[in-house]
Amino acid sequence: MPNRNVGSRPPRSSKFADSEHQNGAETSPLRRRLRQLYMAQSSGAPGSQGTAQDTNELEIGAFPDNIEDWQPENWLNEDLRTAGLSDLASSAGTIAASRPLHPAGRPTARPFLRPGSSPEISRAEGLTQEDAPLKDALEWYRESRIVPFDVPGHKQGRGNPDLTEFLGQRTMSIDVNSMPALDNLIHPTGVIRDAEILAAQAFGAAASFFMVNGTSAAVQAMVMTCCGEGDKIIMPRNVHRSSINSLILSGAIPVYVNPDTDNRLGIPLGMAVADVRAAIERHPDAKAVLVNNPTYYGVCPNLPAIVSLAHANDMKVLCDEAHGTHLYFGDNLPINAITAGADMASVSVHKTGGSLTQSSLLLLGDDISPGLTRQVINLTQTTSASYLLMASLDIARRNLALHGREIFARVTQYAQYAREQVNEIGGYYAIGSEICNGDSFYSFDTTKLTVHTRAIGLTGIEVADKLRLDYGIQVEFGDTGNFLAIISVGDRPRDLERLISALTEIRRGADGDPADMLFHEYIEPQMVVPPRQAYYTNKRTVPLDQALNEVAGEFVMCYPPGIPILAPGERITSDALDYIEYSRARGSKMVGTADLEVRNIQVLTDK
Amino acid sequence: MDLWLTEFSSPDAKFSIRVEKQLYSHTSDFQQIDIFQTPEFGRVLVLDGIVMLTEKDEFIYHEMMVHVPMAVHPNVRTVLLIGAGDGGSLRELCRYPDIECIDMVEIDREVVNACRRFLPEVAASFNDPRLNLVIGDGISFVRTKQDEYDLIIVDSTDPFGPGEDLFTREFYANCYNALHSDGIMTNQHESPYYDSDAQIVRHIHARTTLYFPITKVYQAHIPTYPSGHWLFGFSSRKYDPVADLRAEEWLARGIETDYYNIDLHRGCFALPTYVQQLLSGGDV
Ligand SMILES: Cc1ncc(COP(=O)(O)O)c(C=O)c1O
């Protein structure tokens, strides 16, 4: 049952025990209420502000029932100690003693306590996956009609009528600032913390962090948590730009493992286990291994094998699961990072999980300190995190936890249907599990509709453009040989029918001659200097077509997928230049350079 | 009791029919289906709140959908009927004995069932042996057909909701391919009058014109559709609907009609100036 307990009450502060690992402890509803009084109304820090006077008012206004029964001194401390929180117990006890609370005896009934929790019930008492604490808090905020003399200045939309008309009053009224009752993402102790704990539980992780700057920020936080200046990190080169940016930020040195390539499709796969082993043997001092799970195309590597290799050599495993949210909820899908034992995972809930664009989750395994991770995140994170984004994560998490299984069973079925139909058209090849190879393409994410188009004589870019321009159908991206359609929680069979019909029609008009089409998606990098060093070296700008053999000072990539063709510090080879021109000529969108036309590139002056 | 069924023609104009009683209400997998008894129009079929047909004026729509192409094509043997779950178009088609086979693809079985039960005059021909009724998605059915039909009739609901796909470019392209080289497609073409409908009229025309060298629009007056002014599309690779009209042959069939006649056939392609202008400016 969703929590309807909002009305005029302030939202609870955190219902969970205050341990860094965010799990396990039981709390009582009474302790919860007390914590509400101390924390929600006093900027989160017990005893930091609340005077007897103002808390007393709050009690009367906010807790019209039950409050008479409270007898705080003994049971409060006992509860907190049971929860393993003696620090908090003593501080809370101190405040409790100084507060005017009602003298009647301690009530014995604990109506919400549910020991021996089933999977549906959150490990911490009180909240279950059916709750959406952040949503409830915002609902409370909306109904409380608080007079805002704080930011944001649009003041629940009144200050920007055009925007309010465009987005709707309901949306604007919860675009709020981190007031105490709504917690604060940079230091969560209340409802955000609850929401994060529920997310951690839903994903089976030891802890989770809501990210409001996309999975890019999550990927950077993973690398910066595990690697410092000069530390080595083993990774494939077909990573998203955020991974390489994280090398610039952290100063970590990449040890690139060439991903395997599928010769028929020309797409890069994952890292083969033997190649990871070889890299680990050559670089036993590396701190971490970074893995895509899955790639944009749906390719998953042998993650359990990579994890055990890495852990045996004291290396952390970091997973970019930007395209892997559903792996945590669906059946018969490739293994997810946390289950495989990875240490950290960046999950784009916005991509396949239904939250708003830009919202994302960072998940932790057991051996990473959440405190440290939060400090790293806070280096670059806004202090004004959007409640729209965070609430969308909270609600998406609830939906996934409660219905994820059915949702992804349906998504898989849609994708399977689309694959069969596309393959029946002829000419196209919609990739399926049949091309897994037991290693670098260990398993295929069957929710992905990755279609190889070269045999009909069109690049994936061209097919994607036709779909958009002629048929009003937008796919995720096209590259030289494939396009990718994302199938997710929001799809309907009839939209698939449109896609298939349009592909049928495009096929009729295509000449079917794959001659002189470029045949690979992966260009082997030649790193001359590490990314961070390249980033801070002096540069000059040269026309791209005269840049052969120079060392790149900036990125060049097609977006999407956003996998760099050239990264800072890499030799500009003729392969790379050919690929750029070929993709551009077929309509790929090039990005990365300071020159928005991507005709010029900065190269290092002293290489 | 003063019970009215109201449909908005635009956000600022509405059309209401007094209701005697509700005969049927059901939410299918695709849409909300309601049937009302009304004093003015008899029984009224309403899908997702939009009037689809009334007993009193359905003949106009169905006659125009079917007899116009049937009076042009000399030799219709195979017909594909898309949508049309109420059976009205089917009823008109079944009046031609030389049609051999009618494939009808309707997405919502419940519409067929409800009409057979409550609108037997409309759903009169579901027992015709030439009918092959397929419950499924029109867009997916037609995609697999190549050079199979003399006539395709796209009798869809409005382009919001389950009928949306039947207004897309890919759908028309696949219809073109499913037709014989001298085949004809007629389609429900919405109303030119209210703004949002008019935009759709443009799109439909632009999209069908992409594939068919001959694409003409004709009109009829249907009192219970928004504005009462309704359009139909006639598309073919070979036949011009007026120049190639086979008036004598059609008259010789002796089919009795209440709206359609040969004079009207010639006249209904003459469009008001504002409609001509509307059709000339559409985006795909
Ligand atoms: C593999 C991969 N990692 C990370 C990201 C970054 O995610 P976001 O756009 O949410 O920052 C993306 C996004 O396209 C991606 O494809």
Assembly state (oligomeric): heterodimer
Helix percent of chain B reads 25-40%
What characteristic shape of chain B results from the CA principal axes?
globular
What structural category do the secondary elements of chain A indicate? alpha+beta
Strand content of chain A: 5-15%
Q: CATH topology of the largest domain in chain B, which one?
A: Rossmann fold
Name the CATH class of the largest domain in chain A. Alpha Beta
CATH-level-4 superfamily name of the largest domain in chain A: Type I PLP-dependent aspartate aminotransferase-like (Major domain)
The fold-level CATH name of the largest domain in chain A is: Aspartate Aminotransferase, domain 2
Class from helix and strand fractions of chain B: alpha/beta
Summarize this structure as a short list of keywords or feature phrases.
heterodimer, A: 607 residues, alpha+beta, Aspartate Aminotransferase, domain 2, Aspartate Aminotransferase, domain 1, seven-stranded mixed beta sheet, 18 strands, globular, B: 284 residues, alpha/beta, Spermidine Synthase, Chain: A, domain 2, Rossmann fold, 2 domains, four-stranded antiparallel beta sheet, binds pyridoxal-5'-phosphate
